[in-house]
Design goal:
It comes from Tsukamurella conjunctivitidis. InterPro entries: ABATE, ABATE_dom_sf, Znf_CGNR. This is Zinc finger CGNR domain-containing protein. The protein is mainly alpha-helical. It is built from six helices and six strands, in the order αββαααββαββα. The chain has a two-stranded antiparallel sheet with strand order 1-2. Strands 3-4 form a two-stranded antiparallel ribbon. Strands 5-6 form a two-stranded antiparallel sheet. It starts with 12 loop residues before the first helix and ends in a 7-residue tail after the last helix.
Length: 188
């Protein structure tokens, strides 16, 4: 069995979640192919849920795709799909996580014992709602990579980012342009 690809974690929880499926317009890369990997992702973003079952993974994928559809619509300045909004709202309402402050001024999440997966999905849904409602300063955009096309939240000062991540999609595209300009066909 091949190792699972690394997670793409950024500073925005909701888009880090949608980045668990990458290369959406090319050869898709599923970064949470199992319930165990979903639990690993939650651990990586500070929402430790312990174990996770296939039903929780199915609900997570439903939420991930709803966020992606809504974010894509927002990036294209279109109305949000009602079906996506319903899924996001339902997950937000189900979660009962509480934000807690540490003495070191760090926010952590207290998840309900026995409902950790629902609580964690609720936190992700609430983050998506904050972004999609305009509560946070920034703009939605689509990655300029023709194989990626991920929706990302651009909070940069100029609001002119072109890539979901410069160190992946941006570098790949820059390298392809360089190779094309210099007659190097790239790897064969």
């Amino acid at each position: 069995m091949a190792p699972s690809p690394d997670f793409r974690l950024g500073s925005v929880l909701a888009t880090s979640f949608t980045a668990t499926l990458t290369e959406r317009a090319g050869d898709p890369v599923e970064r949470v192919p199992t319930a165990h990997r979903l639990a690993d992702w939650f651990e990586a973003v500070g929402l430790p849920i312990g174990s996770c079952d296939d039903d929780a993974r199915a609900r997570a994928l439903e939420l991930r795709e709803a966020i992606h559809r809504a974010a894509t619509a927002a990036a294209q300045d279109e109305p949000l799909p009602q079906s996506a909004v319903r899924v996001i709202n339902a997950h937000s309402a189900r979660g009962r996580a509480a934000a807690v402050l540490s003495p070191h001024r760090e926010r952590h999440w207290r998840l309900t014992r026995g409902a950790e997966a629902e609580d964690a999905l609720g936190v992700v849904a609430a983050d998506a709602i904050a972004l999609l409602s305009g509560e946070r300063d920034g703009r939605w955009a689509l990655c300029a990579s023709p194989t990626c096309r991920a929706a990302f939240f651009d909070a940069s000062r100029s609001r002119s980012r072109r890539w979901c991540e410069m160190n992946t999609c941006g570098n790949k595209e820059k390298k392809a342009r360089y190779n094309a300009a210099h007659g190097d066909p790239g790897p064969q």
